Amino acid sequence: MTDFLNTPTTSGFLPYLTNTARKNFNLDPWLTILLGLVAVFGLVVLYSSLGKDQAAVVALVVKLGFGFGLMVAACCISPLTYFRLTPMIYVGVVLLLVVVMFFGESAKGSQRWLDLPGLPRFQPSELLKLAIPLMIGWYFCLRSFKLKLLDFCVVLAIAGIPTALVLLQPDYGTAMILLLGTAGVLFVVGLRWYWIVLAIVLFAALVPFAWLYLLHDYHRTRISILFNPDSDPQNAGWNILQSKTAIGSGGLTGKGLFNGTQSQLDFLPEGHTDFVLAVIGEELGFVWCTLLLLCYLLIFIRVLYLSIRSSNGFGHLVSAGIAIIFFLYVVVNVAMVLGLLPVIGLPLPLVSYGGTSAVSTLVSFGVVMAICTRKQWMDRE
Amino acid sequence: MKVERSTLQVPKERHGILLFRSMAIGAIGLLVVGGLVFRLYQLQIVDHERYETRARENRLVTQPIAPARGLIYDRNGVALAGNRQVQSLSVIGENVDDVDALLVRIREIIEFTPDEEESFRKRLKVQLRPRTGEKVTLKRHLSDKELAIFAVNRYRYPDVFVTTETLRDYPMAGLMAHVVGSVRQVTTEDLQRLDSVSYAATKYIGRRGIEKFYETELHGQVGYRTVEVNVHGRVMRELSQVPPVRGRTLTLHVDSNLQRLADEEIGERRGAVVAIDPNTGGILALVSKPTYDPNFFVMGMTDRGYTDLIARRDTPLFNRATQGTYPPGSTFKPVIALAGLSLGATDWEYVVSDPNGEFRLPNVSRIWRDWDWNVQGTGGQGEIDLYRAIYRSSNVYFYDMSTRLHVDDLASFAAQFGYGRATAIDVADADPGLMPSTRWKQETLNDKWYPGDSVNLSIGQGGMMVTPLQMATAATVVANRGEWVRPRLLLSSDQPIELDEGFTEQYPRVEGPTDEDWAQMVDALKAVIHRGGLGYKQNGVAWAYIGMDIPYEMAGKSGTAQVVEIPQGEEYNDESLTETQRKHALFFAFAPPEDPVIVVAVVVENGGIDGGGSKIAGPIARKLIESYLNRTVALSRD
After folding, report:
1. Which end of chain B has less neighbouring CB within 10 Å, N or C?
2. What percent of chain A is predicted at pLDDT more than 90?
3. Which residues on B lie below 8 Å from A84 (Cβ)?
């Protein structure tokens, strides 16, 4: 068995590439099927939520196809290549974030979008859900997966620098997810229990301080409205009230696709983006909501399973990080729509309308497949 | 940096913890999803009904539908009041947060006047039915061009609506204003007073005239529809409807041809004409001049427009025919004559001598004069019996008779002719006039009744007040020889209308006068007009003005009502009085005398001079009767 990187077996670039790809074709069938199911489900729901706007759905199909293509491509690359490229990917994404800070396009009060010539418009912050796990995994490989105070600080810096840039946009939701995801990776790598307790205590102590000094007024309103949405039903409480009304009125089996009154009559805001779960809850009911959540859970478990099975520490950590961040998106979005968390602008992965999010999610799963399921690596053990 | 596979490997001693922690993460994930599913269960299964109700309340709105107001026609089927539909621009009042910004936005595509804006702001501030999603109109009567512009820009104005509004329409404008009345916009006070259910969608309510009296019948019954609305309140579809029941169609006795003629005859003067069909009591014409255009009230007059109308000295809003009260003057003489006959104060043979046109009471220094004394300035009318007292309109005869007639007996006799009472069935706000009595004088002037008061009253002065409608009513009773038909405007309706008992009560025949008395009285009233060519003091007082060339028979009586008290010893000088202090000219007539088909009463305010009743009001009455007879004769020939 030879390493293709060091000893090319065939002459010519194209034969080499196809040969390499065939040898390394690591598409995980279960994960692909689950992701496909969620994506198709999302398309059906969006077709209803967008008021049967076929053009928009077709555009989304193209983006998802592109995403799946990239996923397949990403799964064909060797883990060593990813390992080597990691620092460049990380630095590249951070640089893109800096570019966004100066040249980005604003939408709804925050500067998140980048419109580079020759590329479709995209959000560089979405790439962080791949770049940060990669970089952390890379770092721990160098450190032989030891976790000392210094390592802790370095990992905080790795996650903290891009997160700070995201906070400046400002995009509190994504920043929060990235930090929590990092904490999750630290947990997997073996953060000691007393540190965990300490962190929780520290966080709890920080809450009143944050409430007074860090949060904006509208944050405070959003949090307090959570406990009493009826106190201001027309303004601050509107989203959460209408969302709960939509979901609750759906009942067990829903009102039927295209028949949701809350969503079709515009009572529900952001029905095709952040609050898409409310549309599902209203039109398809408890059954389909639960099935969707189950799909997400299975994806999460499958990736964790792949990471455990990978028997390669880089793959293990990176996959765990990607899985945790993905799962956090789902949980925070669903909790928000169900009125358990304050309203934060986060999409439901693969279902909410939006290109970059879906594509980067799919690419990160491609990376997971590439670095976890490589047969050669498993054969060796 | 040299990268080996081994670089990526987990050291053996770290492998276990990674494995364990990964599984722990998975377990946490499982718990979290379990929690979320539990929350879903709570919302969708446990609290499902609560949220379903909320969703229904969000989207379903039950809207009342205003019924179409009943139509009003004259006896010939000419439309007097109808409905027309206009397209209006409106907003849902409670959804407006920033009215300035809204108006700026609307002005980008559709112009509106400052008056419209002012009125809109006012109605927005005081909403009629708050929290019902009621629309407030900004601009009425959008042109086709404006409608097209709005249609193109509709997506930019999700909060602005084009609605079809039904407006009351009075095609006759001012001509029928005092018959039909008008509607006005419903106010907050109305809604507190009215049945809030049946008026839930109604924008207009009858203000005067027929519109007011038959408000219940014209209004109809409210309908309902349940509609689905979107978050902006725009109706997406209708789910169910209980259609409204339109108001009754009313046909009036009024003849718009006769009405128009009367209106033209009074012309620019102030006055009133009432014509009644004595067989039915149907009011054929009811004119009050000046008049106003009731369409103004429909469109929602500006404050300034209303103030102008109110402030006019000739009070166009005032219904002279039913609410204007005038001393009846000599038009009262036929009734007091019948009272004298019935109560034994006189008979047809009794003769009064009037050598100098003066009358005195024993021990009273005041002199009461005959009207002719003022006209001729000389002498009296000579020997006068009752017949002559009527056709010459002798004051002295009645002065003399008044001494033998108790005022309270007179008052209750006169009440049989409708004096001091509102007798019309369906005339809104008709004034009952005033019939003096001892009690009245005690209560209002805190004084007892003097014989002099009776003398004044005997010629329809001294506090007695009647409306033109009452004049016509009394004339109808005389024309019918004491039989009553109460005046009414309504001829028929598409469905039977039930009125309260007070409105439908039949009045008994006048008691007292014999058949002979009635016949003689009608004959004397005929003489007022037809007795002529016998010399000034033998002619009927109206002969010279309307009787000389009359080709048919009619009976009538003139009157001249003094507006200001003339101090004793001074002459009444028309020149020295301001226009509004001059006497009113009064006249009533009916024809043909033997079998009357029309009764007319005419009042021309400040018509001027003594004898003005015959000279100024008389010709108007004759014109009307002539026109009506010509047409009824023409009709009966067919």
Report:
1. C
2. 50
3. 3
Percent of chain B past pLDDT 70, that is, above it, reads 92
Sequence-distant (6+) residues with CB within 8 A of B504 are B425
Question: Which residues of chain B are within 8 Å of residue A133 when distances are taken between CB atoms?
Answer: none
Residue in B22, B33, B39 nearest the CB of A308: B22
Our count of domains for chain A comes to: 1
- Give the ipTM of the model, two decimals please: 0.91
The verdict on a CB contact (< 8 Å) between A293 and B47 is: no
**All domains of chain B in start order, with CATH:** 62-252 (3.90.1310.10), 257-637 (3.40.710.10)
Which chain B residues touch A265 with a CB distance below 8 Å? 58-59, 228-231, 236
Total count of residues recorded for chain A:
381
Name the β-bridge partners of B91: B136, B160
| pLDDT at residue A7 is higher than 50 | no
Residue B163: enclosing H or E segment and its boundaries? strand B160-169
Asked if A314's CB is within 8 angstroms of B8's CB, the reply is: yes
Please say if the pLDDT value at position B552 is more than 50: yes
A46 domain-assigned: yes
Query: Would you say residue A54 lies in a domain?
Result: yes
Q: Which residue has the higher pLDDT, B475 or A171?
A: B475
Q: Which of B36, B56, B237 to mutate to test the interface with A (most CBs of A within 10 A)?
A: B36
Local confidence band at A184 (pLDDT 50, 70, 90 cut-offs): very high
Q: Which residue of A has its CA nearest to B236?
A: A265
Contact A262 B52 (CB under 8 A): no
CB B80, CB B217: distance < 8 Å: no
Contact status, residue B479 vs residue B519, Cβ threshold 8 Å: no
Residue B40: which of A23, A251, A47, A187 has the closest Cα?
A: A251
Are A296 and A290 in contact, with CB atoms under 8 Å apart? Answer: no
Q: How far from each other are the two terminal CA atoms of chain B, in whole angstroms?
A: 125
DSSP sequence for B352-418: EEESSSEE--TT----EE-HHHHHH-S---EEE-HHHHHHTT-HHHHHHHHTTS-HHHHHHHHHTTT
Answer whether B43 sits within 8 Å of A281, measured CB to CB.
Answer: yes
Domain that holds residue A351: 21-380
Residue B513 has pLDDT above 90, yes or no: yes
Answer yes or no: do B33 and A294 touch at CB < 8 A: yes
Q: B334, B458, B362, B344: which is closest to B407 by C-alpha?
A: B458
Catalytic residue among B330, B394, B614, B627: B330
Structural contact between residues B139 and B149, judged by C-beta atoms closer than 8 angstroms: no
Mutant choice from B1, B12, B40 vs A, greatest count of A C-beta within 10 A:
B40
Band (pLDDT 50/70/90 cuts) for residue A374 is: low
A381: Cβ–Cβ under 8 A, 6 or more apart, which residues? Answer: A311
The answer to pTM > 0.90 is: no
Per-residue pLDDT tens digits for B82-141: 999 889 998 888 778 888 888 999 999 988 888 888 888 888 887 777 767 778 888 888
Residues of B in contact with A144 (CB under 8 A): 11, 14
Chain B partners within 8 Å of A297 (Cβ):
29-30, 33
Of A262, A286, A297, the CB nearest to B58: A262
Domain annotation covers residue A274: yes
Predicted confidence (pLDDT) at residue B312 exceeds the cutoff of 80? yes
In a domain, A4, yes or no: no
Q: In the structure, what pLDDT confidence band is assigned to residue B7 with cuts at 50, 70 and 90?
A: confident
CB contact under 8 A, A190 and B18: yes
Provide, as residue numbers in chain B, all residues whose Cβ is less than 8 Å from the Cβ of A190: 14, 17-18, 21
Which of A297, A330, A348 is the best substitution to test chain B (most B C-beta atoms within 10 A)? A297
What percentage of chain B reaches a pLDDT higher than 90? 53
